[in-house]
Design a protein that fits this description.
The chain has 10 helices and 44 strands.
């Protein structure tokens, strides 16, 4: 056959190679006619490997490199960004990130690591560890990527020499994040995962053309994605005038059809979302969309590009023995080719847009120990029901009967533009629907057409979700971050011990309820009055008590406790107030307590201190009745034990009074008061 006899009239997404897909972008016939003129250089460029469409996990981390290729977002996705600015000044880190290299529809949800955050204005107020005690540590602001954007004013103010008002980011969706430095003790509490890693759920380009309404809009319709891709600089580089729009309208309608999923909810047949980079292989991006949307893209006789949507079209062409000149049938029963089950992997919005496994369609083990499975893995599919339908189609096509035939070519009944034809070639194939899976080849010399396909049922696209969808395995559910628990049953006891010289010293012993051996506890104490600043002591791991340093005798202290784990602390407990007492044992009472009146307004008290090593002094009281209760402190006198002592009190009012002398120890613990008897002040 000559070159003219090999003009391909249909390009099927089911078996398109990189070069064949590129051929469509250039114009199939033109490429064949001018194939020699292209030369080896063009051929090598067409076959040169390019980066593949990113998996959802590829968008987990923000990228830092000099000039990254532009990220393109279609539909709703969760992804990180490319850094364009990261600097620090005055303890604040300024991040400017670009999640999409074009205008987007909106930001749906911001994440720091995998924690969804709540904003009040631009301030992150939830999760609470980013906003402790109503103090702001992280703020987030965003731009949608308008043709003329506005620079981030606070970044311009902080870095006027390197970031000016001209750094607007026109046409780039961007996020500005500012992270403030936390105190050393609070760093792991505020930033438990170190510096926040920003990502977001966003709705991609709002500039997708919909020929049904003749307008540009945001959509998740896969047929409209493909139309956009073929006419974009990152795909086919064609124009809308190169597209046969009635086909694309019908395909978009097919994608919008409703189906009931296994939960009884309603969703669209072929909707999804994904992102890629401008330097990704256009053929790879196109195949991703075609597979997910069940699309077959082809070139029409008038040179425009049409599409078959993912639906069954009743055949308008019937080939019988009268038209068929050559026929072969492959029952397709070879275990090396057929499968028992189909696995699926899709992007699950319910699992933070991670890749998850779908339920297995079929049974991988039927009478044998070896798995015979194939996997459908498509990043743009975001529904389990959608993936299960793709798995069913893969199962039918992989196990279907193969047919190849040559028939008389009738230009009025050309199957080149059909996805399904009917073949009646009994007894091998009495009456069957054939889905064309390869490019029909027309011989103008012989006036024949040769094609191949798969025998499929008329209900190929019928799907009973309640029976066929199955239940996927459980996803890993991220647990919400737990705070370090505040200590419970916190208590403080004042203890004493003998130190050098035989004296006693007081210290505090803190106790609490046991939670985990992994926790350590920090005890803090300070004087209630005339504080010299707080002091701390840290327990060992697994211990349920810790003691303070020695405390000043007779001084009142306040104590509180907090727990630590992996560099993060709990909140403090409420304060407990205790008085330090080094010697809780009182001395013996004084003896020989007496009083005389040496002059007007005076009283001279005398006593003999006890022979007690812990004696520190006495307190002298008086009352108008012979009762210690309600008496008035007149003076405090310090002195040594077992040596007679005395004190003259002046300025007393006239009248009959009763005196009392009370010994006390170095910790101010009193002995029983001793009465002096009545005396009359003149």
């Amino acid at each position: 056959m000559s070159g003219l006899e090999l003009i391909p009239l249909i390009v099927s997404s089911l078996g398109t190679t990189v070069f064949a897909a590129n051929a469509l972008y250039l114009g199939t016939a033109a490429l064949l006619y001018g194939g020699l003129a292209l030369g080896a250089s063009a051929l090598s460029k067409a076959l040169a490997p390019k980066p593949t469409v990113p998996k959802p996990e590829d968008g987990t981390y923000n990228l830092k490199q000099s000039v990254p290729s532009l990220p393109i977002v279609l539909g709703r996705v969760k992804k990180a960004s490319d850094y364009v600015f990261l600097e620090e000044v005055n303890g604040n880190a300024y991040h400017i990130l670009v999640p999409a290299g074009h205008r987007i529809n909106r930001f749906v949800q911001h994440f720091l690591h995998d924690e969804a955050v709540t904003l009040s204005g631009s301030v992150v107020v939830s999760p609470a560890h980013f906003f402790p005690k109503n103090k702001s540590y992280v703020s987030i602001e965003s731009r949608l990527g308008a043709p003329a954007e506005t620079a981030y004013g606070d970044v311009v103010a902080a870095f006027p020499t390197i970031w000016t008002s001209n750094h607007r980011g026109d046409g780039l969706a961007s996020v500005k994040m500012i992270c403030k430095t936390a105190k050393a003790d609070d760093v792991m509490k505020v930033y438990p995962n170190q510096m926040p890693e920003h990502s977001s759920v966003l709705e991609g380009s709002p500039d997708i053309y919909d020929p049904r309404i003749d307008a540009y809009t945001y959509t998740t319709n896969l047929a409209l994605f493909r139309l956009w891709h073929l006419t974009s600089p990152y795909g086919g580089k064609l124009s809308l005038s190169d597209m046969y729009l009635p086909d694309w309208e019908r395909a978009a309608d097919v994608c919008d059809r409703l189906i009931v999923n296994r939960f009884g909810g309603v969703e669209r047949l072929y909707h999804g979302g994904f992102w890629f980079r401008a330097n990704n292989d256009p053929a790879d991006v196109g195949r991703t969309i075609d597979e997910a949307g069940e699309l077959v893209v082809y070139e029409r006789a008038d040179g425009t590009v049409g599409v078959h949507g993912g639906a069954y079209y009743a055949p308008s062409i019937i080939l019988t023995r009268n038209e068929i000149t050559a026929f072969s049938l492959d029952a397709n029963v070879d275990p090396a080719v057929t499968v028992l089950a189909v696995r699926g992997r899709f992007t699950d919005p319910e699992d933070l847009y991670n890749t998850n496994d779908a339920a297995i369609y079929g049974d991988p083990y039927i009478g044998e120990d070896t798995q015979r499975t194939v996997t459908v893995d498509n990043v743009s599919v975001q529904s389990h029901n959608h993936m299960q339908r793709m798995q069913k189609l893969k199962y039918i096509r992989r196990n279907g009967v193969r047919v190849s035939l040559t028939a008389h070519y009738d230009i009025d009944a050309d199957p080149s533009y059909e996805r399904f034809i009917r073949v009646q070639y009994g007894p091998k194939l009495a009456d069957a629907i054939i889905e064309i899976t390869a490019k029909p080849v027309i011989s103008l010399k012989e006036m024949t057409i040769t094609l191949s396909g798969i025998v499929v049922p008329e209900d190929l696209y019928v799907f009973n979700s309640a029976v066929e969808e199955g239940i996927p395995g459980s996803s890993v559910v991220p647990m919400p971050r737990g705070e370090v628990p505040v200590p419970e049953n916190f208590g403080v006891l004042i203890q004493t011990e003998v130190v050098s010289g035989g004296a006693s010293a007081a210290y505090a012993l803190a106790t609490w309820g046991h939670v985990s051996d992994a926790l350590t506890y920090e005890l803090e104490w300070e004087r209630v009055t005339t504080s010299t600043g707080p002091q701390t002591a840290v327990s060992t791991s697994g211990a349920d008590q810790v003691r303070s340093a020695y405390l000043a005798d007779g001084v009142q202290y306040r104590f509180r406790l907090r727990a630590w784990s992996s560099g993060a602390s709990s909140e403090w407990t409420d304060y407990l107030t205790r008085t330090a007492t080094a010697d809780p044992n009182p001395p013996s009472p004084v003896s020989g307590a007496n009083v005389i009146v040496p002059g007007a307004g005076q009283a001279s008290f005398g006593w003999t201190p006890p022979n007690s090593l812990n004696y520190a002094g006495v307190r002298i009281y008086s009352n108008t009745t012979n009762s210690f209760a309600g008496s008035t402190l007149l003076a405090t006198e310090y002195g040594p034990p077992n040596i007679p002592d005395g004190r003259v009190i002046t300025g007393l009012s006239a009248g009959t009074k009763y005196g009392f002398i009370e010994a006390f120890n170095t910790s101010n613990i009193p002995a029983a008061p001793i009465a002096t008897g009545a005396f009359t002040v003149t």
